[in-house]
């Protein structure tokens, strides 16, 4: 259900709420406030419908006992400025047996010069948050500046929506918090609200069962009261983000801010001496942030939402997030704006609340009145004051046996922009009867870990002791996934590991379930059991941490979420260190220049480049630093360098006559972070049209025209190559349009298809040769609906279908001309008259001649070139899924056909998800460094090795994915690659060049890109143009074999069961 709530008077917002039973009452689950000054209603919940109470509502209390009679306001005036919860509200959390009693008060500030000034504070209390009865969300937003009220109200509305809507919300709320604040900030910039010199701070808390996640931007505060013996102690959940903090002060200075008090700014005190002491010693003139050459913005905080002018000097919206477990000794939570904390410490507020005998409404009124009095004691005005108090009662004790590696009792502060990746939800284990049964039986084939591919920084977790770090270091020193990492990367990974205590009989991992964690055993004994079919599980191994040995298991889960091959059960009390896959990837992704990639895509002269070529440019940019006032470019000089601004600001100036020394330079433009200049120098040697001068310290990324040409060729050549490719696509489309007419004009269904035989079958996919009476034969790509759902591959199949529809035409990637489906299968009818699977060639010929290898590999190169020019990484190359054309009126035999698009992905740079056939994964993918075009060229090398040996280079008979991945990771030099003696030196050179472990030195990715691959000596004499046009005759041995091949698999080898569940996702197929 959706109910409207008051949002500042005339405007309304909606929030999804599920009504539920509370003691003798049923009601809404959210409230917002306050309303503007001219439309305030005292003592009303911020809901237009007061007949519907928010859960259980205790009787309102008399607030007059808290009225500060010594102030300038009369009783009625003070009353008019208050909005309260109209009594204490109550909600019950069943999961932890806890009753929450909460109340809020907000008071509009008193400004003698502006008596009608709006309350710039906004707040929200959201029960049943995200449709979950065990979740509550609290937020206080303190607006500032001319448009502070709309800024705080906008943030109050958008932040919860963005938070609960983030894909990380369920598993990693601390990550979702970071994304939500940043997105809300961007949305505010883009809104109709002028936030140039206005914005809002924000303090919010999500209560999820017993876990409390608090995110802070600015100088509002959240505090809990913890009973420690006879004392009730205030524990801060947030840290004020002001220049008083040395880390924040250093950060904004590095961003270009001047940090000065007003006395320093006006010359009354030395601006070079930090004279402000600590926040507790503040004399009323706090340090503020100022632009380098301006008397603005003057903010006394270092983070906020909005404030676009201050953002250029380091005032950011990245929150600091703390995570706290609410134990029985935690009595209440306080969330309040800066109006409360300006003259009161956290402990004083806690003591005041404790004096009110457990009544949150009375306590909120008392604190508000005291804050109001203190403001008038030190000032002639008061700030807006907002406070939310939440009391806990009946909270159950946390059983150590149920803690799956969560945080300990102390709050953990997560560095902004580097959200922590610790898994904090409890594990749900099945009952004993089915605890050891695998969820789904899979054929061994490809790996698949398609996840959110967005970039995020590695977390800054709670510190480990030196002995713990040494233990972890000893445990992973021989592990292939860690051996190639430097010390800093390993330390970052150790810091995000979560300690998990286990009890005897506890299941750590379960056979068949998707694996997301890697484990190191600190102490304990663990049995490994494997179940085959319906047989009882058998003990196959026991891990035992003894004599200083610390075994580990689950390495492959750091790469992809493949179902577990075994169940691991604790046989004694033990301790594990747990590492989540996304935390592992966050460390490995640290240097991915996606922002730079987007910048390069906007440079007009670089528009002809493919994504792969742009990635090469991004990887080759060199850092350059310029000091304040230093000339980067001078007007009239010849230049060859292009520059992108990584941090800082530059000013562009020019003269009408550059040779006139008496003419002053006039400023024409300023450029900031992630903008660029000098792009024309990449095309030709022209005189610079303006000066470019550093304003403050500037960090630039640069590349010269000569370096660019050596890397990818001249831009003119690339433009010509792209134009030729587009023309080839157009010709292919015209040819295929003529061939597809009959298929398009004939109406037929799956039941009309006659299966001639199966070409390939794996997991959810089959390729079949089929025919319809009167139309002849063609190839159909079939997907099992039930298996697709069972494996969770719906998005993968839909993405493959989308790529197939949008891909430009190519003779090497057959287009889909018709899609069919029923309850059992989805079918793509391909414009491919007939085909022979590539593995049949290896089975039918004892040795594949090198002229055939040349023709086939060249076809794969052209096919992948087409994908890369379309900004798609293929990622699924494998001999098993490649088809070869058969001779027909429309095409020559033996031409490569890429028909499996499940792992293809349109990208804007690297992609870090690990998918594709395990034997074809490149070292950089296995190592977590991400896939680029170079990863596809590695797979070509593996395919070439297979063509000449009948096996892939890094797999042995009976190997599992872990052994294969370890061999790939340990491949240090292509010179060590064992190759058959019978192959030519040219072919050996090609394979070694493609199987180079360093992607930057790999053939196809070195200087010249794909041109260097095509010009390799092995391809000498081959006409690439004729091949791309489909008119190059295949080698006779290849054509003869395909002509006589008829060994289909039987048609009943792919018979998926009908699926009766939700098929709405099929509408996108």
Core attributes:
1069 residues, alpha+beta, Phosphatase 2c, domain 1, Jelly Rolls, eight-stranded antiparallel beta sheet, 49 strands, metal ion binding, PP2C_BS, RmlC-like_jellyroll
What would you say this structure looks like, in words?
With 1069 residues, this protein is α+β, with helices and mostly antiparallel strands. Helices cover 27% and strands 25% of the residues. The chain is built from 28 helices and 49 strands. Strands 5, 10, 11, 12, 13, 19, 20 and 23 form an eight-stranded antiparallel beta sheet that branches. A hairpin with a 3-residue loop joins strand 42 and strand 43. Helix 21 runs antiparallel to helix 23 (933-949). The protein is globular, with a radius of gyration of 33 Å. The model is unreliable at 1-29, 34-57, 399-445 and 451-458 (pLDDT under 50).
Provide a count of the helices.
28
Query: Can you give the mean pLDDT?
Result: 81
| Count of the domains | 5
The helicity comes to 25-40%
- CATH structural class of the largest domain: Mainly Alpha
How many strand elements? 49
In terms of DSSP E residues, the strand content is: 25-35%
Question: Can you summarize the main beta sheet?
Answer: 8 strands, antiparallel
Approximate shape: globular
The CATH homologous superfamily of the largest domain: Transferase(Phosphotransferase) domain 1
Gyration radius over CA: 33 Å
**CATH architectural designation of the largest domain:** Orthogonal Bundle
Q: Remind me, CATH topology of the largest domain? A: Transferase(Phosphotransferase), domain 1
- Measured distance between first and last alpha carbons: 31 Å
Provide the structure class: alpha+beta
Which residue ranges are poorly predicted, with pLDDT under 50 across at least 5 consecutive positions? 1-29, 34-57, 399-445, 451-458
GO molecular function, one term: protein serine/threonine phosphatase activity
Protein name: protein-serine/threonine phosphatase
Cofactor: Mg(2+); Mn(2+)
EC number: 3.1.3.16
